[in-house]
Amino acid sequence: MVQDGIDDITRAFDLDVTTAGAIILISGVAALILVLSGTPWRLARNVLTIVHEAGHALAALVVGRRLQGIRLHSDTSGVTVSRGRPHGPGMVLTSVAGYPAPALLGLLFAWLVWAEQLSAVLGVAAVLLLGVLILIRNAYGIFSVLASAAVLAAVAWFAPPGVQAVFVYVMTWFLVLGAVRPLFELQSKRRRGAARDSDIDQLARLTGLPAALWLLVLGVLIGGCAVMGGMLLVDPAVGGPL
Questions:
Q1: What is the pLDDT of residue 1?
Q2: Does the model's pTM come out above 0.85?
Q3: What is the 3-state secondary structure (H, E, C) of the chain?
């Protein structure tokens, strides 16, 4: 079981606490490089899409909509289909929940890391993948979720505690940092006249508020999660409660 992140890394690799803290910071740099990359980002982005669609699905359940399923596509897009009123607060909440979902999950993971509950991060990730797998309705979606689950299972079952800790840090950093880039990609598509049925365009039609305002709101929310999550992750590396 993964316990205290710094202690696990220290014991596993026979490092002092300062060096282990540096590894935590380096894992953040590695995640940032992945977010800013080309092909590696397009592969890793599938994870964000899974969480994005899970956010839509969870919000739909919370507001009482009937879930029909989730489809994930090879271009890293996805769609969550639910039935219910086509307008109103429930539909607004369902539409708004996608883009912030990776950032909010990353913030939750960062808090669990800060609270010395790294094992819980792997558990929550496993539950999320299982829930999405049940709702998947296309072959590529099944493949994408199973591939993610295989990586998670390999780390949880076969990797030593120190390697598990490093994996948890990289995954958490990737969620809090990676959640930012899709907003820039979305705005780039919108400037080219594409993505007219994006979440923020749907929100604009549902609420009468400009799509640019919704983009700003999501940007502030996601950016805030990235800052707070980063602070929680860096804290043990500079002498926090861990």
A1: 43
A2: yes
A3: CCCCHHHHHHHHHCCCHHHHHHHHHHHHHHHHHHHHCCHHHHHHHHHHHHHHHHHHHHHHHHCCCEEEEEEECCCCCEEEEEECCCCCHHHHHHHHCCCHHHHHHHHHHHHHHHCCCHHHHHHHHHHHHHHHHHHECCHHHHHHHHHHHHHHHHHHHHCCHHHHHHHHHHHHHHHHHHCCHHHHHHHHHHHCCCCCCCHHHHHHHHHCCCHHHHHHHHHHHHHHHHHHHHHHHHHHHCCCCC
